[in-house]
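idk why but the lab printer keeps eating my pages so im just putting this in chat instead. protein + adenosine-5'-diphosphate:
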Amino acid sequence: MTQTDTILEPGRLFIGGEWRDAASGRSFETVNPSNGEVLTTVAEAGKDDVDAAVQAARSAFPAWAETDPRKRAKLLFRIADELEARKDELGRLEALDNGKPYRQARNIDVVDAAKAFRYYAGWADKIEGDVLPAPGAHLAYTRREPVGVCGAIIPWNYPLLMAAWKVAPALACGNTVVLKPAEQTPLTALELGRIIAEVGVPAGVVNILTGFGDPAGAAIVAHPDVDKIAFTGSTAVGKLIQREAAGTLKRISLELGGKSPNIVFADADMEAAVKGAATGILYNTGQACTAGSRLLLEASIHDEFMEKLKARVERMTPGDAFDDKTRLGPLVSQEQLDQVMGYVEKGKAEGAELVTGGDRANVNGGKGFFLSPTIFDRVTPEMTIAREEIFGPVLAVSTFEDMDDAVAQGNATEYGLAAAVWTRDVAKAHLAAHRLHAGTVWINTYHVMDTGAPFGGYKQSGYGRELGKNAIDLYTQVKTVWVNLG
Ligand code: ADP
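predcted complex ->
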């Protein structure tokens, strides 16, 4: 499988069932992170394009909301089938545009995106209201109605999967969508648009705008005819969106950053925990909001654990997304590489001990955005690398004395997306899981997710739960109907 098997045409905007150039005629380049080369250009949506897409979504909404849920389900099942049938091609596109290893893109991202469509297809005809206890001669019941036009703004770390997490439940519930993929990774969202059109989803139900956060994303957020924003991205932009959404009081759900603690007690299965610590920080080259970026080790096992972890991590050499041996791809962009390198420098300057990595890896003649997996030991709570989300393969290690100390350090962050605990003691594991302030806690594992399991943040990692039945709450609103029976 080589990347030249893919011929990339310039991407256009998908508005009202048609493929168009941006009203301004502008476009921008998208780059292959494995070698820094331009893959193709895509249209750059501006405010006029946002207006057109929102109008298309608004016009399509009443009929789509009224469509027999079983028909909606059927279309979502077909999208899932098509995603799976085209997983080679979609995996290749994702690997080219994002840099993640082709096998991971194909076997995990694309397959999970299909699962999301299948799962919410199953929900479409099971969204029920309640009959309520009512005083006197009354009947009272609730209906769950779609919210309306949903703006979905997504990041570059799991481009197709994040699109699926938002588009699938939105459509199942009868909403229409304006989707804006991240400017770094627009290509698979456009393929999703092609599939959506091919299977027969009516024009305007899903509109896809490639473009930048500002103006395209910002115009979606500010638009008075957009009823809801579903955002996944940085905490900084999440705050901006919350402020901006106040102008029209639209509903928002935010899945933001993390600085997740991965806590290893002395009684843990050490081999498994070492593997979990490496996967926790290195999966997706650390570009995961759930990355286990703070490793907290019980002091008594520190030396032995670090020896094993260093050896394991040093075997994880970065490589081209299309090299079969690659398990660790590049960072998504030069900008991201520079940002992560900046944190590495801060780590050194603030006195953390660099155990391994910290330098650019020489892959493809140094043209890609590769960084060697990096571990800092003896990290103290006030250091920048202990506090800020790095979004790269950079691990901050510190030690703790007992359960109280572990939980206190684990919770000493403004974030609260995920946490993990490694121990053979069942009671200790659950106790820690209950005491950690995070939307997901893993026990003796890391990064396990499923379409059926709700996902979202505590604290500044955002609010609203995607996936599972919880997403139905995000994409519906409850109406109470009173009937006078007297
Ligand atoms: P990252 O730092 O991981 O690139 P961002 O939060 O900047 O994450 O980007 C996530 C998504 O938010 C992208 O689709 C980006 O274009 C979009 N975005 C960035 N700035 C804004 C903004 N001001 N308003 C709306 N969307 C934005």
